[in-house]
Amino acid sequence: MFNLPVQVRTALDMLSKNGYEAFIVGGCVRDFILGNTPYDYDITTNALPSQTERVFENFRIIETGIKHGTVTVIIDHMPLEITTYRIDGEYADNRRPVSVSYTSRLADDLARRDFTMNAIAYNHSSGIYDPFHGQDDIIKKQIICVGNPQERFNEDALRIMRAVRFSSQLGFEIEKNTAECIGKQKYLLKNISAERIRAELDKLLTGKNVYNVLMNYSSVIEEFIPEIHNSIGFDQKSKYHMYTVWEHIAVAVSKACNDKIIRLALLLHDIGKPFSCQEEGNCRHFKGHAGKSADMAQKILKRLKYENSTSKRVITLISHHSDKFESEKAVKRCMSAIGSEAFFQLIEVQKADNLAKKPFCAERIPKLENIKRTAENLIKSKSCLNVKELAVNGNDIKNAGFSGKDIGIILKKLLDEVIENNISNEYEQLMQFVMEIKNNGQV
Ligand code: ATP
Ligand code: MG
Q1: Nearest Cα residue to 42 out of 54, 57, 31
Q2: Residue 108 contacts residue 85 (beta carbons within 8 Å)
Q3: What are 257-309's pLDDT values in tens digits?
Q4: Separation of CA 93 and ligand 2 centre (Å)
Q5: Please, where are the H alpha helices in 320-380?
Q6: 189 to each of 30, 104, 166, 354, 396, how far by Cα in Å?
Q7: At what angle do helices 427-440 and 405-419 cross, to 10 degrees?
Q8: Integer distance in angstroms from the first to the last C-alpha of the chain?
Q9: Residue among 70, 65, 64 nearest 49 (CA)
Q10: Atom number in ligand 1 closest to CA 165
Q11: Dmax over Cα atoms in the chain, in whole Å?
């Protein structure tokens, strides 16, 4: 018996007391069978949306999904999506059903679901209902379509992305026939919106099996990031590397901490290498590859409709991924340029990058830990790292007789002098420097 939260039990009981069937279904049942605690619950019922609304008339209800038969009920702060048993009609453009209709049979509702592991229903009185033997597949750790994979991917090509991201998240293999159809039909992903692909990519990147998925399904990724094509199989011929560019990327992503931004940066950090390759004898050099990868990443992230803040941060991390910090001043300069939050992420990117090279490169890890400590100490000691932290402000510069753009330029100059330890961050000293600029007559 699964240990359902009280809110879920309440919802199931209320529907059943009113004479309807109701089950939890999909990801939450799969997670229970796997021994994990689900993070959300979907309920499926033969009650029509209007009937569900009546049952929960004393609760807060959100109607946004009503077109698809979904009523969201909030029970004691927990949102529960309650969806009427549904059959999808014909599919248009490999994306979405033209129409949905309701059905009174749970088995029909389960038949429209993507994979057998996601097509299991459960409630306390009936137990598990599993007409497609999803439990067997969960035990076998395999992802297999409900029904004919070719037809299912044709109906909704997003299922291709869902299969690979579940493989990454759960560490399951994709069953042979389902995998073959992915290979043949991956081109259908061109009909899927960037937003939906992006959401799956984010989940894929933070999965525990991401290395295998990036290696085995690179051709699926290529459908929406064709820029990776040249990296796949590209021999680096470098004394630091033992992997091709793509395998290096796959290892780096898998070694990184589980943060979406850091993993996205690693996915794209070296894709400019094949385009910045210089041959020297039997060696290859990749001068300027960080900048080239960052330029390519910018276009990719825009196309995949990542939010501006994510995209900006990922590009910063890629641009600086091969920077070296040999002194405290170098740490300060970079922290000042990109901000301290980005700097700490950069250290994580560099750690993962080095763990994906020849073993001797792991010697960089303790050095990077030291750099991290230096950065932490700079923050603790309230070291001045940006213009706002200077002991003077724009008004002080204005009062010294400057105006317009000059004020910003002078503040930046002061910051540079403080970071280089030429002057200390004290009002008197800073203003003395300002007066020198004034006396020289040149900003
Ligand atoms: P997660 O843990 O990521 O939420 P999930 O399996 O719950 O995984 P959801 O996107 O929340 O995934 O979908 C809930 C359920 O709806 C799935 O388990 C599956 O039964 C069904 N489903 C979702 N998307 C599709 C789809 N594109 N095609 C068919 N069935 C789908
Ligand atoms: Mg879910």
Answers
A1: 31
A2: yes
A3: 999 999 999 999 999 999 999 999 999 999 999 999 999 999 999 999 999 99
A4: 24
A5: 328-338, 340-355, 364-380
A6: 26, 32, 17, 33, 57
A7: 120
A8: 75
A9: 70
A10: 3
A11: 88
Bridge partners of residue 284, in order along the sequence: 279
Percent of the chain whose pLDDT exceeds 70: 100
The pLDDT tens digits for 233-251 are 999 999 999 999 999 999 9
Which-ligand-closest: CA of 30? 1
Q: Which residues contact 391 (CB under 8 A, 6 or more apart)?
A: 384, 425, 426, 427, 430
pLDDT of residue 89: 78
The Cα 378–Cα 332 span in angstroms is 8
Pocket test for ligand 1, best of 25, 91, 118, 152 (most atoms within 8 A of CB): 118
Please report the pLDDT score of residue 430 as a whole number.
96
Q: Ligand 1 pocket check: which of 36, 39, 40, 42 to mutate, most ligand atoms within 8 Å of Cβ?
A: 42
Distance 84 CA to ligand 2 centre (A): 16
pLDDT in tens, 126-176: 999 999 999 999 999 999 999 999 999 999 999 999 999 999 999 999 999
Contact 379, 372 (CB under 8 A): no
For the segment 30-50, the average pLDDT, to the nearest whole number, is: 96
CA–centroid distance, 337 to ligand 2, in Å, is: 40
Alpha-carbon distance 64 to 72, whole Å? 8
Contact of 299 with 314, CB cutoff 8 Å: no
**CB atoms inside a 10 Å sphere around CB 288:** 12
Reading the block at residue 33, the tokens are 């069978």
Burial of 251 (0-12, 13-18, 19+ CB in 10 A): buried
